[in-house]
Every structure is written in structure tokens, then in C-alpha cells.
Amino acid sequence: MARIAYDHAGAAAFEATRHLSDDGLAAWREAVIRHLDPRPGMRVLDLGSGTGMWARAFTAWYDRIEVVAVEPAEAMRARSMFQPVLPGDAERIPLDDRSVDAAWISTVIHHVPDLARAARELRRVVRPGGRVLIRAAFAGRHQAITLFRYFPEAVRVLDAYPSAADVEAAFAAAGFVTVGLEQVPQISAASLREAAAALRREAHTPLQLINDDEYAAGLARLRRAAQSETGPVVDALDLLVLS
């Protein structure tokens, strides 16, 4: 079972607050180009596609690639800006053997109960030599993520996530090798004031899994800081690349 189950309220919150602007997406576009070399005819799996931001972005960015979106939550599929979306998850991918050239997995890996099984499924569907790109907040690597500055209690939730080493080990057992691990900066909001106004607890797993008092204290810290801090909110998430 995933750490949280996205119902329609959670999916709506995710759609409203977790989509990045074009400026926020720019560094990720360049990172994908570096590691994936998208080309016409390439077939890419967006695993755990959520409300479709990445599937839509990939099809807009890269000429004539095919994106196959797979998402377990019915509420997410219903709100997706990209269609069609297949029902399925990392342990049961509804695709044929060796049917995709690459896989993109964004802020999903911490919801996967059995990493070893998921790695074997990805080894099955990704063609030999294809790459798996995992965008994630890994355990022990919260320092460049603004959310944890104001909600330090949520670090204990993050530290229960798989580490990068955990994921690498599971995928190595399935026959993958690590190509690289890097942090990619993104503009998450135009200002801290904007981020505070838009924050929805339901859209963030770490915030759902702290208690109400801890959430209230963090929200108060965020709102106080938003009164004086200027400039865009820049976060850095990890990109783990395997082949």
C-alpha cells in the first residue's frame, strides 16, 4: 500500500499546487535531455503520472515522442491533463515486455511498497540499454527543499522514505546500473508569499503524516517568513538515473 491514498480532494490539491510553471520546469527539461537524449519515435513510460504535468510537458518538449502514462489512483486519472492514462502501478505495469525506451518516475518512489518487485517490472518493460529516471526527495537529502525549513517535523517522514542507496541496491539486483545522481534546482514559486498562500496539506505526503499541532506550527513559521522574504522559491530535488 502507498504511504497515502489520493482521493478526489487530494488529487484536486495536487493539481492546484504541485504543477510547476515553465520556469520551474526548465532545469528538468535540460536534465532529461542530458540523460535521455529524446528522439522522434521514442516511447517513454510516465509511471505514477498523477495529474499529467510531466506527460504533457514531455510531449510538448520533445518532437514526436510517445508518452505512455500509468497511474494507480482513479482520482488522479480523472483529473489528468494528459489522456489516456492506464490504470496500474510500479509493481504491475500494464505494458508488454521491452515495450518502452525509457521510464520517468517523479515523486513516486516513496509510495512503492516493494522496490525489488518494481525494479524487476521496470527491467521487464524497459528495453535493454534504456534508462530509468527517478525524480525524488530521498531520505537524508532534505537540505535544499524549502518545505522542510518551515516544517522540520516532516523530516522524520522523509527519513522513512527509501534512500538513494536503497533504490540503487534494489535496481542493481534487477540488473540496472547507476548512471548518475544529481540535484536539479527548480523554481517552485515566484515568492514565499505565493507559496504560503497556495500551500495545501493534502498535496504533500510529509505534511499529511505529521500531526495537526506540528502542521500548525510549521504553517505559522512559513507565514511569518513570507512577510519579509523576497525572491523566488528555489528547491532542489534529486534525479537518479539508471540503465
Overview of the structural elements:
This protein is of the alpha/beta class. It has a single domain (8-242), classed as Rossmann fold (3-Layer(aba) Sandwich). Helices cover 40% and strands 22% of the residues. It has eleven helices and seven strands. It has helices spanning 8-17, 22-36, 53-61, 74-79, 115-125, 146-150, 155-158, 164-173, 192-198, 205-208, 212-226, and strands at residues 43-47, 66-71, 85-87, 100-106, 126-136, 178-189, 233-242. The protein has a seven-stranded mixed β-sheet. Strand 1, helix 3 (53-61) and strand 2 (66-71) form a beta-alpha-beta unit. Helix 5 (115-125) crosses helix 8 and helix 9 packs antiparallel against helix 11 (212-226). The radius of gyration is 17 Å and the shape is globular. The relative contact order is 0.16. The mean pLDDT is 95.
Q: What is the count of β-strands?
A: 7
CATH class: Alpha Beta
What multimeric state do the chains show? single chain
How many helices? 11
Q: What gross morphology would you assign?
A: globular
User: How big is the Rg?
Assistant: 17 Å
Query: Which class best fits the helix and strand makeup?
Result: alpha/beta
What's the overall average pLDDT, rounded?
Answer: 95
Give helix % range: 25-40%
Distance between the termini: 27 Å
CATH homologous superfamily placement: Vaccinia Virus protein VP39
Question: In CATH terms, what is the architecture?
Answer: 3-Layer(aba) Sandwich
Strand count, sense and barrel status of the largest sheet are: 7 strands, mixed
Number of domains: 1
